[in-house]
Amino acid sequence: MSVRSQSSEPSASSAAPHRAGFACFVGRPNAGKSTLTNALVGQKVAITADQPQTTRHTVRGIVHREDAQLILVDTPGLHKPRTLLGERLNDVVRTTWAEVDVIGFCLPANEKLGPGDRFIAKELASIKKTPKIAIVTKTDLVDSKTLAEQLIAIDQLGKELGFEWAEIVPVSAVGDKQVDLLADLIVPLLPEGPALYPEGDLTDEPEQVMIAELIREAALEGVRDELPHSIAVVVEEMLPREDRPADKPLLDIHAFVYIERPSQKGIIIGPKGARLKQVGIKSRKQIEALLGTPVFLDLHVKVAKDWQRDPRQLRKLGF
Ligand SMILES: Nc1nc2c(ncn2[C@@H]2O[C@H](COP(=O)(O)OP(=O)(O)OP(=O)(O)O)[C@@H](O)[C@H]2O)c(=O)[nH]1
Ligand SMILES: [Mg+2]
Question: Which residues does UniProt call coiled coil (predicted)?
Answer without folding.
Answer: none
